[in-house]
Amino acid sequence: VDYGGEDDLLADLVAAAVAQVEALTSLRLMAQTLRIDLDCWPETALASGWLELPVRPVRDVTLITANGEDVTDQFELMASPWPRLWPLSFWPPGGDGISITLEAGYAGADDIPADLLLAVRELAANGYHRREGDAPAFPEDDMAALIAAWRRVRL
């Protein structure tokens, strides 16, 4: 860093790097509350018997509403490795909308795996060095190697 006046730039670069790592891995690195809104229960959930949540890690599901009614106690959270909601008996009617509020992300920076932190640092540092076009891009192979264990592979 050349001088203290670049704090805003560094904050933006770190935020962009975190967003890129999160997008590529479906992880939420920092603790946050998220709300997922669905029009109805997905066909895949009805067929499989569970609803896969689109982010991880999920620390807690704080509220599930279906048709405006609190149905949180009708579900169990299977948090690892890919978070899923299991209905304890049957799928509550949800034709008028479903909302799932959850706590996602790692509890603190010390809990974030080292390879993911390194990916964020490398992306942010690369963005800083490339701000004037005088440095090569961070090799995609290096980035892929750092996050490979965290990406979802579907068949």
Description:
- The protein is an alpha+beta fold.
- The chain is 32% helix and 23% strand.
- The protein is built from 4 helices and 7 strands.
- It has a 4-stranded antiparallel beta sheet, with no helix packed on it. Strands 2-6-5 form a 3-stranded antiparallel beta sheet.
- It is elongated, with a radius of gyration of 19 Å.
- The chain starts with 6 loop residues before the first helix and ends in an 8-residue tail after the last helix.
Brief write-up:
The protein has 155 residues and is α+β, with helices and mostly antiparallel strands. Helices cover 32% and strands 23% of the residues. It has helices at residues 7-25, 43-48, 114-129, 140-147; strands at residues 32-38, 51-52, 58-66, 69-70, 75-78, 84-87, 98-104.
Q: How much is the radius of gyration in Å? A: 19 Å
* Low-pLDDT windows of residues: none
Helix- and strand-based class? Answer: alpha+beta
Shape: elongated
The run of helices and strands is HEHEEEEEEHH
**What's the β-strand tally?**
7
**Quick one: biggest sheet?**
4 strands, antiparallel
Percent helix among the residues?
Answer: 25-40%
Query: With helices defined by DSSP (H or I, 4 residues minimum), what is the helix count?
Result: 4
> What is the percentage of strand-forming residues?
15-25%
